[in-house]
Amino acid sequence: MAAHASVQARGTRTRARRHSTTSWAVPVTLGVILGWYATSIVRGGGVLTGTQLALGLVSGAVLAVLCFGLGRVQRRLPTGIKAAAYGALTGGSIGFLSSLTGRSVMSASLYGVLTGAGMLLAAFYFFYTREE
Predict the structure, then answer these.
(1) Rounded to two decimals, what is the model's pTM?
(2) Does residue 17 contact residue 46 with C-beta atoms inside 8 Å?
(3) Does residue 68 carry a pLDDT above 80?
(4) Distance between alpha carbon 25 and the CA centroid of its chain, in Å?
(5) Residue 112, exposed/middle/buried by CB under 10 A (0-12, 13-18, 19+)?
(6) Which of 98, 115, 116 is nearest to 107 (CA)?
């Protein structure tokens, strides 16, 4: 009678944890958008060269990896640190894109800092009002 309790049922093996579609689709989409925009800025309406394409691919891949990594560790971070991380990622991305337009370093830095501060405030509000 008790013999059936020791038999392992099919399909109960533990599987490796898989990532949800959203956890990788959002970073990839943001990386593609940033890479395309960086390539468009540097190209300036001319012919696309290999160097410009490489810049877009590398910058998009870096943003995608950073977004994916932040998404993986965000649950373990306190609200303030999490908001600061999103602000730094957003501000750095906007500052980088602004620097590609040929503006001065101070102007690109100012755009990045202002955008990052705005994202920090928005992310802090979002996470603070939803924490348990």
Answers:
(1) 0.80
(2) no
(3) yes
(4) 10
(5) buried
(6) 98
pLDDT band at 23 (very low <50, low <70, confident <90, very high): confident
Q: Which two tokens stand for residue 68?
A: 């994916």
Query: Rounded CA gap, 38 and 21, in Å?
Result: 26
User: Which residues have C-beta within 8 Å of that of residue 128, sequence separation ≥ 6?
Assistant: 79
CA distance 92 to 68: 16
Q: Based on the number of CB atoms within 10 Å of its own CB, is 93 exposed (0-12), middle (13-18) or buried (19 or more)?
A: buried
Of the candidates 12, 40, 127, 37, the residue with the CA atom closest to the CA atom of residue 76 = 127
Q: What is the DSSP string of 68-128?
A: HHHHHHGGGS-HHHHHHHHHHHHHHHHHHHHHHTT--HHHHHHHHHHHHHHHHHHHHHHHH
Average pLDDT of the chain is: 88
Q: SS3 for 63?
A: helix
- Tell me, what's the pLDDT at 42? 92
Instruction: Extract the tokens encoding 17.
Output: 């944890």
- 3-class secondary-structure state, position 65: helix
Output the pLDDT for position 44. Answer: 84
